[in-house]
């Protein structure tokens, strides 16, 4: 039996938490990460229904999705830095509280502006949880089991994305759209209760959060995602050019402000480590490939092949299901084998799967599509957990917060890049846009595979330095 009346938080030793306490702590992380991931997939699927009921135009309603992603990317690194200063546990619990409260606000929203504001705070809460999630995993598990821990984490994210569209369809078939967000409230309350009692306290860095650096970071990454979104929606050059200039200025200010800092918010110190840099580039390229495929393939299935939205959802499912199946397998293997080899092989399989989708027959059967999507899912699933372990393992323990922030930032920046490139591909050619997008996706996957194999010739720095 766990001591639920304990007032002081648990403390983790060198071997993490005891097994029973670890299960409860992992459950709280899974609830938080699952909700944050599920809400992205649910909102995308339900956007037309929400826009219709709120009498919003399609262009305006896109902000329901965009503001959530923008808030996450803009605040991930500040929250990861805050985790090193105030404790990962506090940041995660505060994020879960805010996310749950914002979910209730989303469910009670009466107009598009009120829903967008609630989604903004929901994105900030999700960012706080995601920014320190992998840092907490590193604390919960002993070193020889961390690959398994990252595999479980990848499984939660994969399952959330896999069931998101189906869950949204089922909820909308039986209830109105506010229930899409109201369902988070009981889950969030339960997760908050468990996290408050079972997540361990961690050592603090002793640094002070630099508000100006945080502001520069929000400006740099927030405007970067805004730039990607505007480019994807064909904004005029008069809009895109000032945004690009502002992004460059904010990044220059951020780098100058962080120069010489022992624990920079934008982790320049970690990027100087070849293994960390290559693992981060592997992640960005891989998620760009995923973004290109996931945004372009529905157009191919529905417009070119004439499939219904429900059929399209089922045709996309093999990718997500195989990611979920492979994630724990790859996690266990990463405890025994090099992440460079595992990631390189998996990403080569992903690139191969994407190429087979390019060369698909003119009138493909369901089997023709599904085995190709499954191959992509196997390759993608084989990459995630080993790459997470490589990123976290190449950072010193005291910089786990910065490394954890890079994990989530790499994923979102890669996905945003992929989505923007899809829009460009369809601008070049409406009929061949999907083919061009899949070619780019295969190219990104191949680059990611090369980057992963390159880690075999890079010496890993000592974790305690």
Verbal overview:
- There is one protein chain.
- Helix 14 packs antiparallel against helix 15.
- 78% of the residues lie in helices and 0% in strands.
- The longest helix has 35 residues.
- With 465 residues, it is an all-alpha fold.
- The C terminus is likely disordered.
Helices and strands, in N-to-C order? Answer: HHHHHHHHHHHHHHHHH
Regions with little confidence, pLDDT below 50 for 5+ residues: 461-465
- State the end-to-end distance: 39 Å
Instruction: Note the main sheet.
Output: none
SS content category: mainly alpha
What fraction of residues sit in β-strands?
under 5%
Keywords:
mainly alpha, disordered C terminus, 465 residues, 17 helices
Please describe the topology of this protein.
Elements: H1 19-53, H2 58-61, H3 63-86, H4 88-107, H5 112-140, H6 146-174, H7 178-182, H8 184-198, H9 211-232, H10 237-258, H11 268-271, H12 274-304, H13 309-334, H14 339-358, H15 366-393, H16 400-428, H17 433-454
Helix pairs in contact: 1-3, 1-5, 1-6, 1-8, 3-4, 3-5, 3-9, 3-16, 4-5, 4-8, 5-16, 6-13, 6-15, 9-10, 9-16, 12-13, 12-15, 12-16, 12-17, 13-15, 14-15, 14-17, 16-17
Summarize this entry quickly.
It is built from 17 helices and no strands.
